[in-house]
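Dear support,

We are seeing what looks like truncated structure output for some complexes. This example has two components. We would appreciate it if you could run it in full and send us the complete token output so we can diff it against ours.
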Amino acid sequence: MSVLDNIYEKAKANPQKVAFPEAENEKMMQAAYECGQEGYIVPILVGDASKIRELIAERGYEESVFTIIDIGNEDYKNDIIAKYVALPQTVLKEKALGRRMENPLYYAMAMQAVGEADVTFAGIDNTTGDVLLAGQMIIGLKEGISTVSSIGLCDIPGFEGSEGQLLAVGDSAVCTNPSAEQLADIAISACDTVKGLLDWQPRCAMVCYSTLGSGQGELIDKVKEALAIANEKRPDLDIDGEFQLDAAIVPAVAAKKVNRESKVAGKANVLIWPDLNVGNTAVKLIQQFGHADAYGPMLQGFNSIVCDCSRGAPVSEIKGNVIISAVRALGAKRDC
Amino acid sequence: MDRKELESQIIEMVAKCYSVDAANLSMETTFKDDLKGASVLMVGLVSEIENELDAMIALQDAAACATIGELVDKVEEEL
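Here is the complete output from our reference environment:
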């Protein structure tokens, strides 16, 4: 069974409530409909209810597949606002939230924050920046995490790693030039993400051009500092380094270069890049030369699951990402 | 609200969001070099301004301000 088949099965066994604030968008509505009709999620369309109903009919979908939330319904909106402002550590007060909720993206996230939805899925009409800002403002970041970041899941034909062909890598999409503190947070979030989605025991390697002091310089110093911070913040996680990529994933190379005990060297299932120049290039190398499928980017660091898709994404890709985000939400609930 | 009052309110908000002493802040304090905060702190500041002053500043506009003084200018335009 492929990794996606496994994830799809988990989604079907326990469908999560996914809010779609870009409900009128044709591709988004189709993806929401197919995911809902096939039993992977409970799709919630958030927006102008009469317009949404009109489009559902026009496009020939069964309305019963969806839950429709009308952002013009003042009673429901006020109920969400009251629950939201009663939550600890929220940044917006009643009036400011009410105004923000005129935008369906913020409305959906406020629903998620109070438990009326498990995931907000957007990004086809809104920019990544819009989604990240709304996520940070309404959902907030996990305690102790200072940055939003992302990981991708690579399925690499012929790769024989500790999880078979699969390897999680991050951050290849969001955090451009992380400080040591942010790099530590990316590693911690990545471990939590793979645990939630794949049930892996994460073995996370901080990679760069040095293995345990074989190289020197400020670029390596940052990675070492990040490792120290990550280990101090989360001693329960197996995060180790600094390793070159081969020492992280190839047991024979690790045996040669890593002359100390390590739960990670040679068998890492999560790789953390030192910055986005490396991360973005590395993923493209894996895709181009390794002929890999790369799933994601999966946003991480938020209090609950926020998902951004590419604005040019086809329906099939949107569906895959919706289902992955639903399973992440399920995993996050379980790990709470 | 006059300019001085606005400056003093925003300095208090910056101090709260960035966990620094307001006495060490001025209109010339820079976000990048002096405060060195993560972007999430700016999100908190923008939210605080929205809550307390009823001025909705886009995050990208706030993030483009080099100093607290420039941010006050932006808020003043919105009020």
